[in-house]
Amino acid sequence: MVAEEIRVRGTVQGVGFRPTVYRIAKVCGLSGDVCNDGGGVLIRVSGSEEAITEFVTKLQRECPPLAKITELIRTPYKGEFNFDNFVISTSVNSAIKTEIAPDAATCPQCQKEIFDPFSRFYRYPFTNCTHCGPRLSIIRAIPYDRCNTSMSAFVMCSECAKEYHDVENRRFHAQPVACHACGASAWLERADGKAVTASMFSMLDDVDAVCTLLQRGEIVAIKGLGGFHLACDATQEIAVEKLRYRKRRYHKPFALMARDIEVIERYCNVNSKEKELLTSPAASIVLLQKRGLGIETENKSSVNFKIAVSVAPGQNSLGFMLPYTPLHHLILRRMNRPIVLTSGNISDEPQCIDNDEAREKLGAIADYFILHNRDIINRVDDSVVQVVGEKVQTIRRARGYAPAAISLPPGFENVPSILAMGSELKNTFCLLRGKEAILSQHLGDLENGGVFHSYQETLNLYLNLFEHEPEIIAIDKHPEYLSSKIGKEFADRNKLKINQIQHHHAHIAACMAENNIPLDSPPVLGIALDGLGYGEDGNLWGGEFLLADYRKFQRLATFKPVAMIGGEQAIYQPWRNTYAQLIVANLWDDCQEKYADLEIVQFLNNKPIKLLKQLIDKRINSLPASSVGRLFDAVAAAIGIYRDECSYEGQAAIAMEALVNVNSLNNDKEMLIYPFEFSFLDSIYCIDPRPMWQALLHDLQQQIPKAVIAGKFHKGLANTILEMTKLLCQENVIHHVVLTGGVFQNCVLLELVRKSLETLGIKVLTHSLVPANDGGLSLGQAVITAAQLRR
Fold it and tell me: How confident is the model at residue 202, as a pLDDT?
């Protein structure tokens, strides 16, 4: 007989791991115990060597659905062994090295119970077990025990306690376990404060009444898992328009929720990978291609339901998710068409998570509230993903994914504790420790005061939750980023070193890290295309070809810099970029002489162009930027897409992408592409779009359709990137090409570039685990800092 101590690290708390250990230990005839502690799960076993080896093999093979083992270490046990059976011991508080599981969608067993009239969980909107339910959203501290969650306010009834302590039950040590008798409850309120009476509705209960309200065209604020949502019937144009007006979200697409896959398939094409994402425990929003008119058959009569145009104006995709809590399942039980389910806030502010806060801030938006008394501790927005060429691309990493750790590549073992502060927009922060990175959930744009406050609160929570004491702070080089300013203040207060990281280098390093490129690998060619980032030379970059490893980079090529007239105004008024592009290309005089009849030229002539030209010449709030994001905006405005104004960054570019006929693009070999030319700028290659503009203006004069122009621009840009890559690969030893930055969320461009590079035998790395946009920036900042410290 031998005794061993087995340390298991990873996502192993709150996911049914200890019951699994207990069951397998019993099967293998072992004695000993298992407990949670700050390091994960600690197992002590005694038995034959063969039995212990069989135990470890079974444990790895039969891991619970939500668990993830990142490390399993076996050592001989030297202490006194006083066990004659196998037991589950009380959790031990110690240094925090374990992971917190993300919130998980309702499992099939719990779904079955809430619709089973003979189950004690029938219609209970907070049913959960070790395979599903709240995790990050309710936790205050580790270990993940009930006393450290918002469920501490509810004392288990005898029935729940019996299941909680029954090792054979799937609710064994499920910390949020509760039922009608002892758990949280939900209720309906009117926003105007008047009483709600059962006679107002044909309903089973308050939750069921929500479905009736949505069908009537009302707007309902729903307190969900990680925050409030605003809901309405997605097929009623008046209701959707009303929600847009009240929420002040005038154009950004709304997310949708449908009862099941069958409902979604009436409106969108869903492939097997997308179906897998929709039904996974993460239950994220999945961007799907529109199918067209949805047709529903109800009571043997065909009824046409069409998604309201206002749900996603100017888009050819819809963002769908399935119900991920019992509350959602119960609301949608009778709903045969999709609902809008958008974040419960005034546009750009953080989601409400508190009942009183929601009543105050959402009372002018919602007609009704469905509230509950289980506190949300941590605000967690919905994640957003899409499938591009059979690969998952994360656009917003939040519920269902955060704060699951990201394993670092070889060479990053035992790195110092690092805190990376992220970017200004689409912010996340990152904690680096040991061999893993913990990326926060999506927090939003820090320029909004509410988001800025939420960022600070969430940062403090993570530092406390993971007992993370950073030795160095990593920030973006932009001097005006609020995340950088917070980082500097934190470093000054704690007398820590600070490391400033170039924006696009961080994008590239993040993609390298998630693709497991070892620390000491040769440099990659990183192609980083985005809105803008602060460059090494003090200028604004946004279309860069960098030869980079984790420690350093060399700028090899860029797009020709063009003034952002009015600074941030250029992001929201695309015509400014069109005018600036034509000025830099020396084509404005041609426009007056040869193309004076074009809509875009007439439009620009009605603007104060003499003043704008002076701003460009004198560089007054009009700094040049090599931004590909702004190039997209300029082309979109030229062909008449959101020319005058946008309500969010990239709106015009996204609408232009939606115009492109992908089948024509891929199959029409005769389609001409817009040309770009190469020149030099400060001793590096420069991509000049002047010939592209000449061809585009000619096409506009010939009244070529917008969709054709959009396709020729995408194909021409992709071809230019390919040609520049071939040139740089000839001059440098390059083993991988990295495609990163927010522009590469454009599926058309990404696939054109990726396929053309792979056809040449070039290994291409793209994003999957973390966003290509600024949401992945903090991971890049962290790994660059770790690599530079290693040197």
Answer: 61
Question: Minimal CA–CA distance to 783: which of 493, 472, 554?
Answer: 472
Under the banding of pLDDT at 50, 70 and 90, the label for residue 106 is very high
CB 476 within 8 A of CB 446: no
Which pTM does this prediction carry?
0.92
SS3 544: strand
Q: Which CATH architecture has domain 186-372?
A: Alpha-Beta Complex (3.90)
Extract the tokens encoding 103. Answer: 């919130």
Q: What are the b/e assignments for 384-422, b being 16+ CB within 10 Å?
A: bbbbbeeebbbbbbbbbbbbbbbbbbeebeebebbbbbb
Instruction: Give me 573's structure tokens.
Output: 């008024």
Listed in sequence order, the residues at least 6 apart from 291 whose beta carbon sits closer than 8 Å to its beta carbon are: 265, 266, 267, 268, 269
Beta pairing, strands 220-223 & 368-372: parallel
Q: What average pLDDT does the chain have?
A: 93
C-alpha distances out from residue 442 to 100, 323, 383, 448, Å: 16, 21, 8, 14
Q: What is the pLDDT of residue 761?
A: 94
Band the pLDDT of 168: cuts 50, 70, 90: confident
- Closest CA relative to residue 565, chosen from 552, 550, 555, 575: 575
Q: Does the pLDDT value for residue 30 go beyond 90?
A: yes
Convert the pLDDT of each residue in 635-685 to its tens digit: 999 999 999 999 999 999 999 999 998 887 877 766 789 999 999 998 999
Model confidence at 300: pLDDT above 60: no
Q: Decide the pairing of beta strands 524-534 and 540-548.
A: antiparallel
* Contact indicator for 423, 477 with CB cutoff of 8 Å: no
In CATH, what number does 2-88 get? 3.30.70.100
Do the bridges between strand 415-420 and strand 339-343 make them parallel or antiparallel, or are there none, so unpaired? unpaired
Q: Which of 118, 135, 173 lies closest to 325, judged by CA? A: 135
628-638 vs 651-659: helix crossing angle, rounded to 10: 60
- Beta bridge partners of residue 81, listed in sequence order: none
pLDDT of residue 98: 61
DSSP state of 642: S
Q: Which helix (H) or strand (E) holds 87?
A: strand 86-88
Between CA 426 and CA 773 the distance in angstroms is 8
pLDDT tens-digit profile of 732-749? Answer: 999 999 999 999 999 999
Residue 413 token pair: 């073992």
Residue owning tokens 């919602």: 366
Q: Does domain 385-518+773-790 have CATH number 3.40.640.10?
A: no
User: Does residue 227 contact residue 380 with C-beta atoms inside 8 Å?
Assistant: yes
Average pLDDT over residues 36-58: 91
Looking at residue 428, the DSSP 8-state letter turns out to be -
Any idea where the domains of the chain sit in the sequence? 2-88, 108-159, 186-372, 385-518+773-790
Contact 137, 26 (CB under 8 A): no
Structure token digits, residue 284 = 């994220």
Helix, coil or strand: residue 419: strand
The Cα–Cα gap between 538 and 478 comes to 9
E strands, 456-604, where?
472-476, 497-501, 524-534, 540-548, 553-559, 562-563
What's the CA gap between 530 and 513, in Å, rounded? 19
Can you tell me the distance from the alpha carbon of 150 to that of 28, in angstroms, rounded to the nearest whole number?
37
Q: Where are the alpha helices (DSSP H) in 266-354?
A: 272-278, 326-332
Tokens describing residue 21: 């250990």
Q: Are 419 and 455 in contact (CB under 8 A)?
A: no
Contact 321, 341 (CB under 8 A): yes
Determine the Cα–Cα distance for residues 92 and 658; give it in Å rounded to an integer: 54
CA distance 719 to 752: 8
pLDDT for 276 equals 96
Give CA torsion, residues 440, 445, 447, 451, to 10 deg.
-60
The reported pLDDT for the residue numbered 199 is 62
